[in-house]
Amino acid sequence: MPTEADVERPTAQTLVRVPDSSDRDLEAEIITEARNGSATAIEQLVERYERRLFRTARNITGNHEDSEEVVQNAFVKAFRNLASFRGDSRFYTWLTRIAVNEGLMKIRGRRPKEISIDDSDERENPIIPEELQDWGPTPEERYSQEELRTILETTIDKLAQRYRIVFQLRDIEGFSTEETAQMLGLSIPSIKTRLRRARIQLRNSLDIYFRRLRHWRGPSKFSQLGS
Question: What's the rounded Cα separation, in Å, for the pair 31 and 44?
Fold first, then answer.
């Protein structure tokens, strides 16, 4: 069986932005100004989070048009209810909860069996690969950060939706297991199971991708440095 370290290796850390204390202080000032009706502050909050929020919405709804609508509705609801934001959590956490709810309402409005996010699938496909192939040099050693970001985003898009949503919230956006479970209305064991399966599927897909790309490209330009 793979170790936890093996499973977590391709978790897309290059996609995560962790705010520092100065950034949080600046954000608090912007939120205060937005509460006071500053259009500039509202625009700043949109600019800060629109792209990340769209990516989350896209991973829930599965298409561009619905994602745009979800993001727009989330911002409208957030700004209408900004007075109720007490700062108990990060503003982005609060905003993402609104967007996730909007996204889930959007997909639940489709045909009943078109998509499901409930726990009923957690006993399906219980077999987990016993061994994962070693990439050799890590992807970071072979590819630029921008290349790696594009490869990861493309591969993540191919995950099954129930796994992609959990992976997006936990490993890309950095929400806790408890926060993710609360946002999706799932149990904590279900979140852990889906996250593990998402990581394994992602690693397997990346393994195939990198091996094919290495065969097609030949030796990486990074491997030739210093030779």
Answer: 9
Eight-state DSSP code of residue 36: T
DSSP 78-135: HHHTGGG--SSS-HHHHHHHHHHHHHHHHHHTS-TTT---SGGGTTSS----S-----
Q: What is the pLDDT along the chain (227 residues), one digit of tens a residue?
A: 444 444 443 444 434 444 555 677 888 899 999 999 999 999 999 999 999 999 999 989 888 999 999 999 999 999 999 988 987 788 999 999 999 999 999 988 765 544 455 555 554 444 344 333 444 445 445 556 677 777 778 888 888 889 999 999 999 899 999 999 999 999 999 999 999 999 998 888 878 777 766 655 555 443 443 33
**Can you list the domains of the chain with their CATH numbers?**
18-108 (1.10.1740.10), 137-220 (1.10.10.10)
Global pTM value:
0.67
